Amino acid sequence: xxxxxxxxxxxxxxxxxxxxxxxRETSLRLIDEIKRLRCEVETxxxxxxxxxxLKAQAVSELKFPVxxxxxxxxxxxxxxxxxxxxxxxxxxxxx
Length: 95
Description:
The protein has five helices and no strands. By secondary structure, the chain is an all-alpha fold. Helix 1 runs antiparallel to helix 2 (24-43) and helix 3 runs antiparallel to helix 5. The chain is elongated. The model has no long low-confidence stretch (mean pLDDT 71).
């Protein structure tokens, strides 16, 4: 995966050089994207770190069923969200 990502970074850098003449705004956006990709490659260097990042993203996208919101108390909603996030993080989801 990392070699593919590094190849993508090299290609992106080449594209940056080619597009540099199209304007400073475009160049700045490409530079930011390259920096973001490099940061991802450097920070997610092990399979477990990549897996944890994916799990964290899944937890951040948890949504409580809207139709139950009025029927459940705030504490029950929080408990449900906690159970679901624990299931994602630790592998015992209880849907």
